[in-house]
Amino acid sequence: MGLWVAILLIPSFVKAHDRYLGEILYIAGSFCPKGTWLADGSLRSIVQNQALYALLGPKYGGDGRTNFALPNLVTSRLISVGPGQDLSLNKPSSKMRSNQETVMEADKWLHSHKAISLPHHVNKLLPCLVHEGTFPSRP
Description:
The protein has about 140 residues and is α+β, with helices and mostly antiparallel strands. It is about 10% helix and about 15% strand.
């Protein structure tokens, strides 16, 4: 009886893993999970999403008064901020010229390994942005 009462006292809102507001998840599926939106550059209301607007601001689009845009990660990918060795400076929320790279023969290095083949292929990862989550605290 005691164990049963203890189980009933656990709050229903306790989750195994809480997501952070603004977190980006890449999902190998056909839809974004509950509490997330597809990061496709769509406009969202500032009034209805004040906490998310506080994190993102108008840097991805929108007028900054009534709406703001989510980052568009459907045709692009995230890169880290700052310069890499022999690379140009990456600025926050900057757009890249292309989301494809051409690897030249001179750029390849000699290596060998066995090929691994899977019967089912995932051709696309959906970028989902968390809109129902914990507001991240400062470190």
